[in-house]
Structure formats: C-alpha cells, structure tokens
Amino acid sequence: MAETTIRVAAAAPYDVVVGRDVLGTLPDLVGAEVRRVAVVHAPGMETWVDRLPGLGDREVLALALPDGEAAKTADVAVRVWEALGEAGFTRSDVVVTLGGGATTDMGGFIAATWLRGVRVVHVPTTVLGMVDAAVGGKTGMNTGAGKNLVGAFHEPAGVLCDLALLDTLPRAELVSGMAEVVKCGFIADPTILDLVEADPEAALDPASPVLRELVERAVRVKAVVVSADLRETGGSDGHPGREALNYGHTLAHAIERATGYTVRHGEAVALGMVFVAEVARRAGRLDEATAARHASTLALVGLPTRWRGAPFEELLATMRVDKKSRGDLLRLVVLDALAAPAILAGPDEQLLREAYDALAP
Q: Which positions fall inside the 3-dehydroquinate synthase N-terminal domain (predicted)?
C-alpha cells in the first residue's frame, strides 16, 4: 500500500508520512544544502543510523541518548549541546531523532534550544513515538519535581512513521503505545475503539492493516487538535483544545514519578484514563457504560486497569504541579460523553480519593 501523508496545518505546516519502508522520504525533509546532520538516537539504534538513506554525502554526527526517561535530564542536554558546539553545528544544519517517545521529546528539545532553534525531523521507532511524541511540536525534559516540566514548542520539519521499524519492537512496547491510540478514540475518534475491540491482536501486529489504520487515525486526531491550538491556549465552544490530548496524563505522570519511571508511559496513561473516567462518572459528568468501556477496551490489548503502587497523598501532591494546574487549582481533562472532552476544575479531594480507591486490584 502506498504511503499516507497527513498534513499538520500549524503555523509552520509539515507532513507526517505513514507507511512501510518510507525512509526514502528522509532526504527531501533534510534538504539538499544541509552539510551536517545530528542523529539523536536511542540506545541500540546505531546500525540504523548508518542505514538512513540520503545522508551519506553529509557530515553525520551520531549522538546516543540514555534509555527511556533517563535521557530527559539537564546533564544529558548539556552533553549534547557541547557535542553540537564541538562539531560546529549551525542554524542551517538539521537534527534527526531516531527512537521512541523519550528520544523524540529530548531530541526535539535539543533542536529547539540549540542556537534558539534548528530544524528537526522525527523518525519515531515506537507506536508511542508515532502517534504522540513526534507530532505536535511539544518537546520536554524532566526535573525532580515532575515529568516534562521544562520544554519548548518546536514544530518538526517532518515526521516519518515507518511501520517496518515496529517489526522488532518488543510486544510490551507495542502494548504500551496502544494506550495513546485508545486515548484518541475516547477523546475524538470512537472508530479507533471499534477497531481495537473487533480485533485486538491485529491492533498489535505491525504488519496488519488494522495497526496502520489505528496509527493513521491517531495521528489525524492529534494533527487536527494541535493545528487549532498549538500552544495550549484553549479551544472554542468549551472544547479544552490541546489539553484534551493530556486525557489520563495527570495521574499517569504522577505514577511515573512515584515509581521512578519503572512503569511504562502507556501503562501509566491507561491507569490514568480509567481513573479519570471514574472521576467523571462519580462527578455526574460521564455515563456508566462509557466509563466502564475504558477498562474493558484497554484490557483487550493487555494494558493495566488496576493498580495500587503508591499512596494517594503522594500522587495528589504531584498532580497539583501538573502543567494544566492554575495556581493551586487542579484541573483534569474529563469526558462529558464519548468524544466530548472537557475540563473539570477543582475536583473534590474526597472524590479523587474514591476514584483512586476504585483502581485497587
């Protein structure tokens, strides 16, 4: 099947290319006049750096990051900045990220901050990276206070989602990435939920047309949302705008921090969605059937729906410094109905505690 091109009509429009064996598009995105390309990559991707097409006649600087969230620290940023400086990396050069969500987040942040911004092309190698981190121009790194609290908005020059890169991805990572796909089903495109529920095994098969359609649909959801609200200033007609993409993420980031990022991001997001659906149900915002559908759909692809790995008080303290909070006011993305996201501001603490208790195994 031919590649699919999805246009992100942001301030600086760019294309997301989805398909198998689409890396041949990379030279066009990098540009013919570029002298240096910094490939910021995840561990174990060294051989892929050499196989990226169209870079042979350019000076390639391969910069390996630590694994996972360990990549997203100030020390790593400084190390990469110093390497770019030593290589004479200029504003006319390009960063290419090659890896999962953490690599994309950090590589994008490096590109956004070096010389106040250089071009970046994302080549995500995980489902999570394809449908979430690589699209939308958000970059970020972590601090001791929480996840992604430091960052910048920096749109890529393009994104290449080559599904062939998923062929060797561990199943646990495929499962984790599916949480962000399912999230897009709940906040905007219920057909995603129908596809997952109809054939959950095909949803986890990189060679299946089902997974391809799921990736394309999730990318389209994000493209539409970020095109209308790049910098999270809010949507219209009561829609939370880009904040809707954080559905389930307030508790998820708290879980990640509490466990030292040993819980995968998608696993934490799955738990966060079940939690916030229960919050909305108890607040009288969401019907019982839609709330229950969260756990049933997520469980079909092997994602967790029950957890009790940290005290509620610890998680609540972290949630209060979430990026959606305003002053001391905690704000959660909830659903008023399927594909109808909204903001619940200042939820009652006892209600939150009861919803968290409902996650107990």
A: 63-174
